[in-house]
Amino acid sequence: MSGCEARDAKKLVRSPSGLRMVPEHRSARSPFGLDEPPWVPDKEHHCRRCGKCFCDKCCSKKVPLPRMCFVDPVRQCAECALISQKETEFYDKQLKVLMNGATFFVTLGTSDKSELMVCRLSNNQRYLVLDGDSHYEIEIIQISTVQILTEGFTPGGGNTRAIGMILQYKVPGSEELTQMKFTAGEDFSCNKKLSASWLAAMHKVSKGGKTYRKL
Q1: Is CATH 3.30.40.10 the classification given to domain 44-97?
Q2: For site-directed labelling of 20, which of 55, 62, 74, 187 has its Cα 20 to 30 A away?
Q3: How far apart are CA 173 and CA 198, in angstroms?
Q4: Structure confidence by residue, pLDDT tens digits, 175-214
């Protein structure tokens, strides 16, 4: 078991807004999570996401809110319900693909040697875990840039295919950026589609995740 997976223990807590399954340690929270808004003493008509009060008609929907770790769907206003529904689709599709993992040749820094590694998002969504002869755990919030490498582009706008990725990230305790290159292996034809899907999900998470953290 990797170090980051050992910190995945969760506990059930009851907040005024409902039951939540949260990490035992705050340091193990998903970087895609949200804090609950300040409690408003009107449990029937306040939105669990924004915390504002609404009439019954404008706050009647109960929608899943995984970013706040609620166990059951919770009451949300129409605007927040729409955002939460989009986020749930994001969680279900993109993050699950990343957590399932894919295989790449990984090159660290300026090295001319690559290593075959299985790359996946940790269960708590905080780390990118790489396993091969070596082992790396890259904290998601330390990743500064994600560049997807593609092939197949034509001037007429033909389809492209993701074949790799370049990450730049900071190692804790250092201000310098470390670079890591991921390349889908040409001799693993059965895994090309899986690798391309993983890279596409990584691209969407790097863009969409930043957007969701601001909401």
Answers
A1: yes
A2: 55
A3: 29
A4: 889 999 999 876 555 467 888 889 988 888 877 654 444 3
